[in-house]
Amino acid sequence: MCKENAGGTPGRDVPGGQARYFQYRIGVVPEWCRFAHIRHSGTGLRFQSWCDQMFRAVEVEDCAAPNGVVAGLPDAVAECTDCFVRFAFRQSPGSTSGEEQGLIPARIDTPGQMTSAMQILQRELRDEVGRLPHGEIDPGRLGKLAAEAEQFSRALRRFGWLASCGR
Ligand SMILES: [Zn+2]
After folding, report:
1. DSSP readout, 41-52?
2. Strands (E), the chain
3. What is the spatial distance between Cα 6 and Cα 135, in angstroms, rounded to a whole number?
4. Which of 45, 98, 112, 117 has the fewest CB atoms within 10 Å, counting from its CB?
């Protein structure tokens, strides 16, 4: 039985406080990508998880901690281990490594996110297709593209594996 959530509660950042878990509501994404994330910051309409993803408040619901039970809250479907680790070590989103962040996220959970990552990569490849024939070869830019492609490949393998486990 899924209780209706009030929904409009503004996001609170509770330093050193309890983790507040949330997950996509039933039907928003396939069941295998309904991870329970931990809320990091945000406003009433959009907020950010510790694993550095943005969520629309209307698409998610508060839930119990993974392997926990809270009266009145739905159970967590699956734990987001990235959130768990970053919350445990208080490693804020965006503060990961010194490297400049590309457009392709390291973690891609849902078909919608995968589609937009594919479109980003497509666009970047198309840009190069327009440059290379004219001799515009910039090793720095190509290196960045290679890093993005590698990140994408890892995310794509994980995504395929997740989807196959969920069926
Ligand atoms: Zn997460």
Report:
1. EE-SSEEEETTS
2. 21-24, 35-42, 46-49, 54-56, 60-62, 78-79
3. 58
4. 98
Mean pLDDT for 82-96 is 83
Does 9 fall in a domain?
no
Distance 66 CA to ligand 1 centre (A): 12
Tell me the average pLDDT across 46-57. 93
Average pLDDT rounded to a whole number, residues 112-135: 96
What pTM was computed for the model? 0.77
User: In which domain, by residue range, is 139 found?
Assistant: 111-165
Q: Is the pLDDT of residue 100 over 70?
A: no
- Kindly state whether residues 117 and 82 are assigned to the same domain: no
- How many whole angstroms from 124 Cα to the centroid of ligand 1? 27
What share of the chain in percent tops pLDDT 70? 84
Give 35 Cα–ligand 1 centroid separation in angstroms: 7
For ion ligand 1, residues whose CB falls within 5 Å: 37, 49, 51, 80, 83
In a domain, residue 28? The reply is: yes
State the distance from the centre of ligand 1 to the C-alpha of 102, rounded, in angstroms.
19
Q: Which of 1-10, 123-132, 141-150 is least confident?
A: 1-10
Q: Residue 49 domain-assigned?
A: yes
